[in-house]
Amino acid sequence: MEEHPNRIIRGYTIMINGFLIQLGLRALSMHGRAPLMLKCSEECGELSQAISKYLCTEAGMYSDKTMGELRQDIIDEMADVIITSLNIRLSMDITPRELEEAVHRKALRFEEKMDKVSGT
Ligand SMILES: [Mg+2]
User: What is the whole-number distance in angstroms between the Cα of residue 77 and the centre of ligand 1?
Assistant: First the structure.
């Protein structure tokens, strides 16, 4: 992987968090891989819904929640997606390094696209 010393993303803090690993291994032994993968898919849908509600409310559509509550909903769903994604990592023996390299590679690709759009 090409080195970009000032732009390396360090995700190990979450990916090797002992509590999250123990929790994931426990869930894996209780439910097996497929339900954990489906749960992550479900959580991605919940995050999408939370984002949609936030933006619709911001645009003036009715909501029974405040913008602060809707913001917190997004944060909570992001946490669910992170946790369930890490469970998939465990269930598929994806190493922290593999995931970190993917995040780094995708972030660089994202940067390239933004540079292309902005003409820099
Ligand atoms: Mg959720």
Answer: 5
The 3-state secondary structure of 37-65, one letter per residue? HHHHHHHHHHHHHHHHHHHHHHCCCCCCC
Phi, then psi, of 86 in degrees rounded to 5? -65, -30
pTM reported for the whole predicted model: 0.86
Residue-level pLDDT at 52: 96
**Domain residues of the chain, as ranges?**
14-95
Quickly state the pLDDT bin for 60 (edges 50, 70, 90): very high
Give 14 Cα–ligand 1 centroid separation in angstroms. 18
How far, in Å, is the centroid of ligand 1 from the Cα of 87?
14
